[in-house]
């Protein structure tokens, strides 16, 4: 036997609802609910944002100080900064002259050695040890490693050659080795980052 639906639909007509200060009761309830919801969202988001702030140990790693006093002209060392290799090279007079003798118009990424070093410290070439092609670590910083055709660095992954200013000279690397932000704290200590 078929049942008969006897439910009564509420009357939504505006004229049937009481008003509070000119605002219908249902509108008032909606506004109150939205306001409460906003407070809930703020309370939820704050801990997430707070968790995303770098911790003290991460901040400490954002810069490093390196003692360069033992790096003789013609030598380089590898360090690490923000989980990336860093090359710090003490250029010889001959390497500086070779870098300065290059015609910029023939460079893929034209920069002078002076652009890539600090005034009065042109012998200190500080770059990321990350090939700008696909991110391999080039050779040439450690004693006895191949330095490539331009006496700087060589990336064997696909054959990129960098010169004594760390500029890309041959192979697929599109840009020069990146120079990070750094400053000299003294003649023998450099701060990177
Ligand atoms: S990653 Fe260095 S040449 Fe490709």
Strand order of the largest sheet: 3-11-10
- At the first level of CATH, what is the class of the largest domain? Mainly Beta
Q: Can you count the beta strands? A: 11
Number of helices: 4
**Contiguous uncertain segments of 5+ residues:** 1-18, 31-50
Q: Please trace the helix and strand order, writing H or E for each element.
A: EEHHEEEHHEEEEEE
The largest sheet is:
3 strands, antiparallel
Question: How many independent structural domains?
Answer: 2
Note the beta-strand portion. Answer: 15-25%
Distance between the termini: 83 Å
Helix content: 10-25%
Which architecture of the largest domain would the CATH scheme give at its second level?
3-layer Sandwich
| Overall 3D form | globular
* CATH topology term of the largest domain: Rieske Iron-sulfur Protein
Write the layout of secondary structure elements.
Layout: E1 19-20, E2 23-24, H1 25-52, H2 56-60, E3 64-67, E4 76-81, E5 84-90, H3 93-100, H4 113-116, E6 124-128, E7 151-155, E8 160-163, E9 168-170, E10 182-184, E11 189-192
Antiparallel strand pairs: 1-2, 3-11, 4-5, 5-6, 7-8, 8-9, 10-11
The structure holds FE2/S2 (inorganic) cluster.
Q: Would you write up a description of this structure?
A:
The protein is α+β, with helices and mostly antiparallel strands. The chain has two domains: 14-52; 60-192, Rieske Iron-sulfur Protein. It is 23% helix and 23% strand. The protein has four helices and eleven strands. It has helices at 25-52, 56-60, 93-100, 113-116; strands at residues 19-20, 23-24, 64-67, 76-81, 84-90, 124-128, 151-155, 160-163, 168-170, 182-184, 189-192. The strands form four sheets. The protein has a three-stranded antiparallel beta sheet, with no helix packed on it. Strands 4-5-6 form a three-stranded antiparallel beta sheet, with no helix packed on it. Strands 7-8-9 form a three-stranded antiparallel beta sheet, with no helix packed on it. Strand 8 (160-163) and strand 9 (168-170) form a beta hairpin. The longest helix is centred in the N-terminal third of the chain and has 28 residues, at 25-52. 22% of the residues are buried. Bound molecules: FE2/S2 (inorganic) cluster (FES).
